[in-house]
Amino acid sequence: MNDEIIKALIQWNPWLEGDFPKQLIGIKRDYDVISYLKIPEIKILEGVRRSGKSTLLYQIVQHALKENKKLLYINFEDEVLRKYPLSEIYYAYLEYKPVEYLLVDEIQLCNEWVPFVRKSYDLHVFQQIWITGSNSSFVSKEYAELLTGRNLKISIAPLSFKEYLGFKQVSLEKFPLSHQREIDIKQHFQQYLNLGGFPAIALREIYQRELLINYFEDFLYKDIATRRDVNTTKLKDLAIYLATNSAKLFSYRNIAKALNLHANTVNDYVEYMKEVFLFDELSKFDYALKKQYSHDKKIYMVDTGLANAVSFRFSEDKGRILETLVYRALKRSNNDVYFHRDKKECDFLIKKEIEITQAIQVTLSLVEPDTRQREIEGLVEAMQVYQLQEGLILTLNETDQFEYSVNGISYLIHVFPVWKWLLAM
Fold first, then answer.
1. Is residue 170 assigned to a domain?
2. Could you tell me how far CA 62 lies from the centroid of its own chain?
3. Of 29, 70, 351, 372, which sits 20 to 30 A from 359 (CA to CA)?
4. What would the pLDDT profile of 202-249 be if each residue is shown by its tens digit?
């Protein structure tokens, strides 16, 4: 028996020598992870660091212990465990106790795990295998063939606005909202927009920005620099530049010129940041896939609080932050999202199967006439191209509904505050 491994495992499995620490299970999220225990596939929770994946695993642990299941939780953030292959850790523990449920946290930090997991699944060694990771490449690229047909990926994101209100102990059961209650929810929405949806941020009242900056540096240094050959100064400069320009069009060539970097370096570094879920790229819609990939793209940061904490922002950027929030909500709902750009621009197109089914524009306000005209014209152009009769404009606080006519054809446009739209999703 490897005493070093056993000692580390006991620290991560405190229920082996006492009661389950209830503080580990956190607050219930919208992810019904318990229902996934009904299926045998390997469950992979993937998403950005600090989004709550470990807490969801602990919720599985608590449920399993109530069912008297024999389980082993392994966290590869542990410096001792990180030195060993997954198989060696398991066999060392097997001398100590049997295992029915295997739960492995931050598996991208383990160098040798796929053959063991595949063989264990194929031979039905465990009743359940749960894995978390903060790097998409650990499944999507290197291990896709080995785990094909054996895994189910569950994307874990920072808190939705509904979840954020739950963390703030704000009930959403009473509708319609009273005037005072609406004011309260709008105040919470402003905080959510400014501070974002990382669970630990929602639960603290002070030093949120400092913690967000620590998160940002962990994403760059722990999740990227320790695994990739990068210039950390250039990586950080690029990340701050992208955070500052979240929701804007970008090209690798223009960024390279602005930051005095080689375009290939920009391309590589952006890919690394996408792998750890720090940023997403959004493509312009085109029925020709090759054209989609060749066009400039828009970049969105994973969290508005993170973008606000690390970027250089001015008052005119508030609309971009609102747009980033809307994008994250659309992705969290598993929508297939694009943007429209021809003579005019429309922020988001939603595709269902082979058809565009919805066009969405996002702006802080429609009060200023030039802004109103620009946003409406971009939306209507998209509605014309994709033969939509209704469109949506999301704003900070405004509500409206009107018809807009072009060449004798009327289009119905709904205007809705983002916070109400989020609660209705």
1. no
2. 25
3. 29
4. 999 999 999 999 999 999 999 999 989 999 999 999 999 999 999 999
Same domain (yes/no): 275, 345: yes
10 Å CB burial of residue 355 (0-12, 13-18, 19+) is exposed
Query: Residue 138 falls within a domain, yes or no?
Result: yes
Q: For 125-146, what is the mean pLDDT?
A: 79
Residue 169, domain member (yes or no): no
Residues 221 and 121 in one domain: no
The pLDDT of residue 135: 87
Is the preceding peptide bond at 176 cis, omega within 30 degrees of 0?
yes
Residue 171 within any structural domain of the chain: no
The CATH number of whichever domain residue 130 belongs to comes to 3.40.50.300
pLDDT, position 41: 94
- Are 379 and 330 members of one domain? yes
Mean pLDDT along residues 367-376: 97
What confidence category does residue 296 fall into, taking pLDDT thresholds of 50, 70 and 90? confident
Task: Indicate the number of domains in the chain.
Answer: 2
Whether residues 123 and 211 share a domain: the answer is: no
Distance, CA of 416 to CA of 425 (rounded, Å)? 13
Residue 137 pLDDT greater than 80, yes or no: no
> Are 329 and 160 a contacting pair, CB within 8 Å?
yes
What is the domain extent for residue 282? 190-424
At 287 the pLDDT is: 75
Q: Are 253 and 276 in contact (CB under 8 A)?
A: no
